[in-house]
Amino acid sequence: MDDYLKQFVEETSFYNRLVLGTFLPESWWGPLPHMLQGWLRNYIGGVLLYFISGFLWCFYIYHLKRNVYIPKDAIPSNKAMLLQISVAMKAMPWYCALPSLSEYMIENGWTKCFARISDVGWLSYAIYAAIYLVIVEFGIYWMHRELHDIKPLYKYLHATHHIYNKQNTLSPFAGLAFHPLDGILQAVPHVVALFLVPMHFTTHIALIFLEALWTANIHDCIHGKVFPIMGAGYHTIHHTTYRHNYGHYTIWMDWMFGTLRDPIEEDAKKM
């Protein structure tokens, strides 16, 4: 088993060398403990992903496609976006603690993770990944919903994110603008799922970082109209009503538990 677990350590060490070796002298990060190297790598990767995706997204929808997707009066101000960036950057060091902890648990054999797809085969890999995503979807739905329903959690944690409650205050930069503990709680289902279903390690890490892109997407106020995806049209309603569309990737949990509100139907009511 020890030899098998070494595969996880070798993979995270490769990621550390790839990221840290690109941006920092080895004398700065080489002496650090392995887990701290992982945290620093996650932090640098998270910051880069947040800014590169956010700036490209905003440049495209607010400048290249100005007035195509979003009317001029719905474009958030630079002040609003800078505030979102400030909140996200204060939380980012704490966000990165969760994937670092999950890597530690995986490397020590505490989870059901497997290192290579060939260990289980492609069919089992696909089945396990699907079950993992269902668990994550269910967990994030209820975590998000309880952050609204339990008043102290909303007041002291989730309200930080919900100051962005109108179309002209939402932007891709709002995607990670949470109280640090709020952001961690909503990502916890990714880690819990590792104890419930076998999951490919690299896929798990990729999905954790995909969260940054997904949250940017659902805060851009552009309704993609791709069923059954819980896109920005649905999430904008969540920010304006506070009581609907708690789901993450899909509408299924909101549909099952009676909290779904469709943006197309909402537009029809306004006409």
From TrEMBL:
Molecular-function GO terms, alphabetical: iron ion binding; oxidoreductase activity
InterPro entries: Fatty_acid_hydroxylase, Sterol_Desaturase_Related
Residue span(s) of domain Fatty acid hydroxylase: 130-259
A Pfam family matched in the record: FA_hydroxylase
Gene Ontology cellular component list: membrane
Keyword terms of this UniProt record: Membrane, Transmembrane, Transmembrane helix
Membrane-spanning residues: 43-62, 122-143
Any GO BP annotation: lipid biosynthetic process
Subcellular location: Membrane
Similarity remark: Belongs to the sterol desaturase family.
Protein name: Delta(7)-sterol-c5(6)-desaturase
Gene: SC5D_0
